[in-house]
Amino acid sequence: MLELAVAHALYTRHPDFSEGKLAKVRSHVVSRATCAEVARELGLGERLVDHAASTQTDEELERLSRNRNVLAAVIEAALGAIFLQHGFAAIEDAVVDAFADQIEHALTSRVDHKTDLQELLARTSRQVTYTEISVEGPPHERRFTCAAVIDGEELGRGEGRTKKAAEQEAAREALAKLDDENTS
What we know:
It is a single chain. By secondary structure, the chain is an alpha+beta fold. It folds into two domains: 2-108, Ribonuclease III domain (Ribonuclease iii, N-terminal Endonuclease Domain, Chain A), CATH 1.10.1520; 113-183, Double Stranded RNA Binding Domain (2-Layer Sandwich). Helix content is 65%, strand content 14%. The protein is built from ten helices and three strands; from the N terminus they run αααααααααβββα. It has helices at residues 2-13, 19-29, 32-41, 44-51, 58-66, 68-86, 88-98, 100-108, 113-122, 163-183; strands at residues 128-136, 143-150, 153-160. A three-stranded antiparallel sheet has the order 1-2-3. A hairpin with a 6-residue loop joins strand 1 (128-136) and strand 2 (143-150). The chain is flat.
């Protein structure tokens, strides 16, 4: 339902965009990270804590209410329930409005640094590999550090709560260095 609403809005508003550009923007907007961001903006984590049964400790509830995967699941479930109650046509505009800032961000910024870096390097028949440098913290609060390695040289290093997030940060840093090299 979310993907359909976003795809329809993008296609309607930007008919001149390539299928690849539309798919990249849609993919970012409907990602777990973006859904969790919108859930936070709508205060769904706090509402979850306020209405949760007391089967867990307050500390567990607080941790769950901030968890990206939980928040993404909550907003997806809420959207599904609203869709079942009211139908697609009645809620499409409201769904798109709730994600408007994320759509705009995806349209005007680099949002998938790994893909952008891969595409840039492919033009010159180069490749990037990602190396996990370290993993720290307990299982529920991991911190990953990864490096983006191009032609045997580390061009970017990133940290994140997931390996994927650390790789995205490493790719972002590598892109910035390559952009600097190309403008110098």
